[in-house]
Design brief:
The protein has helices at about 1-10, 35-50, 60, 65-75, 85-95, 120-130, 155-170; strands spanning about 15-20, 25-30, 55-60, 75-80, 100-105, 130-140, 145. The chain is of the alpha/beta class. It has a seven-stranded mixed sheet with strand order 1-7-6-2-5-3-4, with helices on both faces. Strand 6 and strand 7 form a beta hairpin. The N and C termini lie far apart (about 50 Å).
């Protein structure tokens, strides 16, 4: 049923879907994150590809009575963003124990513009020894999905983020004015 819904969506939605094969395990970046529609596009792309996904969502959305149940059914994992709760360590353990593990994270953490991305995606991928896939929505080119190349992080944050910045350069979200440059606070240390 999910594949059928995704096929219909793909034909009707005015953007092209790009869904090359994914590795069994990966952290998928969702960027630039500027609209609620970003989540819908990624869910449809994963359904079309026939791959299960989990994605992190702020607890305020996941804990709502009706909407929260839908978000959790789609693969949403509720995250309390105000303080550290061991989410990175838990995700690393889950990745190690699973045969398949695809976790989509919008590292900007909000649809609003912000100077830094959150680094959880980086630490999960590095700690679990799994690749990062560059997922994207590019409204300027009317395409969404993910890159075909899995990227293994080196542990050199500046170098890895330079690669990520190069990929996302010129990609504009649904609301271009809310697009933020990929940057982590740890790069400056």
């Amino acid at each position: 049923m999910k594949k059928l819904i995704a096929r219909i969506f793909r034909r009707l939605y005015p953007m092209r879907m790009q869904t090359p094969p994914l590795p069994p395990k990966a952290v998928v970046i969702g960027a630039p994150h500027t609209s609620v529609m970003d989540a819908v596009l990624m869910v449809m792309a994963f359904w079309y590809a026939g791959r299960p996904l989990r994605f992190m969502v702020k607890n305020q959305a996941a804990d709502l009575p009706v909407l929260g149940a839908l978000v959790r059914a789609l693969g949403g994992v509720s995250i309390e963003r105000s303080q550290h709760h061991g989410v990175v360590e838990q995700a690393i353990e889950e990745a190690a124990a699973a045969d398949e593990f695809l976790l989509v994270i919008a590292p900007k953490g909000t649809r609003a513009q912000r100077p830094y991305w959150k680094s959880g995606f980086y630490h999960i991928a590095l700690g679990a020894h799994i690749p990062v896939i560059y997922g994207f929505i590019d409204a300027s080119q009317k395409v969404y999905g993910w890159d075909s190349t899995p990227h293994m992080l080196t542990g050199d944050m500046k170098h890895d983020m330079d690669d990520i910045r190069a990929f996302y350069a010129g990609k504009l979200g649904v609301h271009p004015e809310l697009t933020s440059e990929p940057r982590l606070k740890g790069e400056e240390q």
